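Researcher: I'd like a structural prediction for the single chain below. Treat it as a standalone chain; there are no partners to consider.
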Amino acid sequence: MPKIDAPTVAEHHRRRRRALLDAAESLLAESGVEAVTIGAVGAQAGLARSSVYQYFDSAPALIAALVEDLMPRSLARLDADTAAAADPMGRVDAFVRTALSTTTDTTHRALSALADADLPAECTARLAELHLGQQAPLRAALADLGAPDPGLTADLVMGLIEGATRAVVHGAGLDEVTARTLALVHGGLRATGPGPGSAAGSRPPH
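Model: Treating it as a single chain, here is the predicted structure.
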């Protein structure tokens, strides 16, 4: 019988599954989706290939589980930081700052590798669904700010964030990139103005 290194069998399995997901995240962030194989993940986690198969029957199944693990973690941080802001413009700023602050961490690099990977159709669809949910705090803040067509505006702001992320990855300073991105967001929101029926005083600051 395999050694149980936890107070209960359920906790033992939880820890092992967590170790495998962490190993897969690290491999994905460092070397891309092709590196996420059953054997490589097992070796990274210190487990035999046969042990990995107790939790995931294939590399695609492991990657699908990783998507479900990474995205909610990313969303939780965006939600918390955005909700802590005092007003709609502050929430937009908090979303941008948080999104950019994670540019070089392992989770963001792993998600970026997934975005560029040739994944099974169902995994790609689920990733797109979760990514849309990730933008929810930004869309809500833009709606409360009175931005016209908050969905489209959120897409455009995300385009700026993606460009800013690439700049940081390629060596630009995070503080400078964040300041310039926020300036562009503020300028764009001032130019478009509040949408019909927006609350007085909801315009972004000059």
